[in-house]
Write a structure and sequence with these properties.
The complex is a heterodimer of chains A (about 120) and B (about 140).
Chain A: H1 11-39, H2 50-57, H3 60-87, H4 95-118
Chain B: H1 31-62, H2 64-75, H3 77-104, E1 108-109, E2 112-113, H4 116-139
Antiparallel strand pairs in B: 1-2
Helix pairs in contact in B: 1-2, 1-3, 3-4
Classes of the chains: A mainly alpha (about 120), B mainly alpha (about 140).
């Protein structure tokens, strides 16, 4: 199990994004997923109702927070999925395709998040 | 060997190329391996959470009707079950991440290695405090 599927020049940056995204995901995602995916459908919270949620998003700091919450974990996931396909399923002949798809997906997700949050009325 | 033909009609003996074939399902052979793969797969659920959040922001930006559709999708039994599974995976990610932090950071004080629980412990405490603050913000009635 080599640790180096492809030698990309931006490899150190990708590891930093992986690590930063891992930290953000570890500290913040469990509670956010609990609120959105479990508490909201069970009716345990009012803050995810339309009026309160839009009131939260009116704060620029909340939108910046959401951008970080969406973007960095995507790069974390892209990195892990890439290496899992390489080591786990031993798909080694599609290195470049997988890398482009994973990090490209994270970039696209970040752009979508940025667009939605920047244009949020 | 450089002077030889560029593409010899025979295969060069190259001992370094010998690789023992590893089964595609090597990660099912031991619990430790499976746990490693489950930890890696937790990232898929992290990505799913981000996609859900993006849909939530999109629905909010479209107005109350779109948002009520989004909320009804969250109540769908399959989506709810997926969110329960995702929650277990992201908690697993947090636990393994904080435990790893102790191994990633080998801190020495006075020539002695600081024991792992002194590094991962504060991470767990910070996780609970941050989660409690966010829960207080988002779950109070």
């Amino acid at each position: 199990m080599d640790a180096q599927p492809t030698k990309l020049r931006i490899e150190p940056l990708l590891w930093i994004l992986f690590s930063a995204g891992g930290v953000v995901a570890a500290f913040l995602i469990p509670i956010h997923l609990f609120v959105l995916g479990i508490a909201t459908p069970l009716g345990w919270t009012k803050t995810t109702e339309y009026a309160s949620a839009t009131a939260f998003l009116a704060f620029p700091i909340v939108r910046l927070y959401l951008l970080v919450l969406c973007s960095l974990p995507l790069f974390h996931a892209a990195h892990r999925i890439r290496y899992t396909l390489y080591d786990g399923l031993q798909i080694k002949h599609l290195n470049e395709v997988i890398a482009v798809a994973c990090y490209g997906g994270a970039v696209v997700g970040t752009v979508i998040a940025g667009y939605l949050l920047w244009n949020f009325v | 060997m450089k002077s030889a033909a560029a593409t010899p009609p025979y295969t060069l003996n190259h001992p370094r190329w010998y690789r023992k074939r590893v089964s595609t399902y090597w990660w099912l052979q031991r619990w430790e391996y499976l746990r490693f793969v489950l930890r890696e797969i937790s990232s898929v659920f992290i990505a799913i959470f981000v996609v859900e959040t993006l849909f939530q922001i999109y629905a909010l930006s479209r107005g109350p009707e779109s948002y009520s559709v989004f909320l009804s999708v969250l109540k769908n039994p399959f989506v709810f079950a997926l969110n329960i599974i995702s929650f277990l995976f992201v908690v697993f990610h947090s636990i393994t991440w904080f435990n790893l932090s102790a191994r990633a950071m080998s801190i020495r004080v006075g020539g002695k290695k600081v024991p792992g629980f002194l590094i991962s412990g504060p991470n767990f405490v910070a996780w609970f405090v941050i989660s409690a603050v966010i829960a207080w913000l988002l779950l109070r009635a």
